[in-house]
Amino acid sequence: MIIFPIIILISFVLYIYYKVMLVKSRDPLEQSYMNSKAKVFLGIFVFFFGINQYLYYETQLSLFIGILFLVIGGFQLRLGMKMTRHYRNEFRKHRA
Predict the structure, then answer these.
(1) Residue 29 near residue 90, CB atoms below 8 Å
(2) Looking at the 3D structure of the chain, how many domains does it have?
(3) Which residue in 17, 45, 56, 87 has a CA-CA distance of 20 to 30 Å to 38?
(4) What SS3 class is residue 65?
(5) Phi, psi of 83 (to 5 degrees)
(6) Which pTM value belongs to this model?
(7) Does 45 score more than 80 pLDDT?
(8) Is the distance from CB of 51 to CB of 70 less than 8 angstroms?
(9) Up-side HSE of residue 56: CA atoms within 13 Å toward CB?
(10) Distance of CA 95 to CAs 5, 26, 30, Å?
(11) At 71, is the secondary structure helix, strand, or coil?
(12) Nearest to 77, CA basis, from 25, 21, 5, 7
């Protein structure tokens, strides 16, 4: 399946992009917002990496490691989404 490596690559590139933008920014609120967006893409990366590794190896060990990656990636994605919503609202209040 070619879709999982594509999603993994895109999410990794976007994670690096938001981390670089985090360093370039001077505003602490904007830095927090960029960090939360980076967490979302890190969660997507880890989640789909776990799926891809199980589909590639198809062993019992890769199943357990894949489930662990799914849980960690899902938690990171959920936390990043909550932080992104919070900081997006704060960013809009700050701009207005």
Answers:
(1) yes
(2) 1
(3) 56
(4) helix
(5) -65, -40
(6) 0.91
(7) yes
(8) yes
(9) 13
(10) 38, 15, 11
(11) helix
(12) 7
